């Protein structure tokens, strides 16, 4: 199979998709959180129908699903391929101007709409392996949207290949494009029973050959301090300033460990994300992360001990703690489904790529899906420096992701 001839098709799709602003928005009750995500989701549904794909649906929650039936008699497997359309709230995705840097030769990439924004080879070691490849960036004032529109384009191109090359064996492939992954709600309303897959793969990881089979486990923790407010002119012996209690609490956090800025590898952390306060009440919101789920409770107990100590230093103050589960380490589920991971490894090998399998210091929709009953590892899409104006993707790496998807279809068609 000559995959090279589909490289341009994948690129053209990607360029069309990044032109649509699909930034999601945290803190809303809408689903999807922004209507503009539906613009791209409708485009994808229409494109799938025009390609002649079966069972295309855009449902009330914005999920686009479709089916490429098996062409192998007796092949029982139904396998999902998933990518999300939304981009991060951290950086604008409006009016993205993609730039193709052809045949990259190691130069620093100056982005013209903000010449101070430079993607430097010295800061991006992954560029060392891209010599001669075509690199796509934004123009310097927006993110690019390769997270995860590269994955969307790659899945769509794999679908095109299956339709145009009916001799290529495949299992029944269920396609899904989802909103709101970037705000942790990508699978909130996803109907797994209706989707009908026995396993799935999100195409949303980073470097060429990367396979994510282990993530952080994650909780959110809110610590609320209560004080007592009164007129400052008559406050002696009465006022208890919750802002000061919260400041005391934050000052007790370790400075050299257990934070994102001091940890790497398999070491977890707690991370204060938001601080809101008044004299009467102050709230600190944390994310808690560890690869060992039981270690989350240990970190939460440590934070509660710091809160109790801070309150003890301010008589009359009190505190409350709320912990909310966010997601769990997908490895706990994937270890029970070794075939799902093994086929991903084999597909990467068949594409002639070196496997990169490591624990991910973050989470994916796959982590949620695993614990909802759908084992779902995460395969590379080629995206780098996501959520920032320094984002880039290699056209050749995108092509390799397409190859891996096609090989996955063949491997599952052989499964009995």
Describe this structure in words.
- It is globular, with a radius of gyration of 24 Å.
- The strands form 4 sheets. The protein has an 8-stranded mixed β-sheet with strand order 1-2-8-3-9-16-10-15.
- It has 2 domains: 4-214 and 329-413, Aminopeptidase (3-Layer(aba) Sandwich), CATH 3.40.630; 217-327, Alpha-Beta Plaits.
- A hairpin with a 7-residue loop joins strand 17 (383-384) and strand 18 (392-394).
- By secondary structure, it is an alpha+beta fold.
- It starts with 6 loop residues before the first helix and ends with a helix.
- It contains 10 helices and 18 strands.
- The chain is 30% helix and 22% strand.
- Helix 1 packs across helix 3 (146-164) and helix 1 (7-18) packs across helix 10 (395-413).
CATH topology of the largest domain: Aminopeptidase
Can you write the helix and strand succession as a string?
A: HHEEEEEEEHEHEEEHEEHEHHEHEEEH
Order of strands, widest sheet: 1-2-8-3-9-16-10-15
CATH architectural name of the largest domain: 3-Layer(aba) Sandwich
What is the CA-based Rg, rounded? 24 Å
What is the topological layout?
Layout (H helix, E strand, L loop, with lengths): L6 H12 L17 H16 L2 E5 L5 E5 L9 E7 L14 E3 L7 E2 L7 E2 L15 E3 L8 H19 L7 E7 L13 H4 L3 E7 L4 E3 L4 E10 L15 H10 L17 E9 L3 E10 L2 H20 L5 E10 L3 H4 L3 H13 L5 E2 L7 H8 L5 E3 L2 E2 L7 E3 H19 L3
Parallel strand pairs: 3-8, 3-9, 9-16, 10-15
Antiparallel strand pairs: 1-2, 2-8, 4-7, 5-6, 7-18, 10-16, 11-13, 11-14, 12-13, 17-18
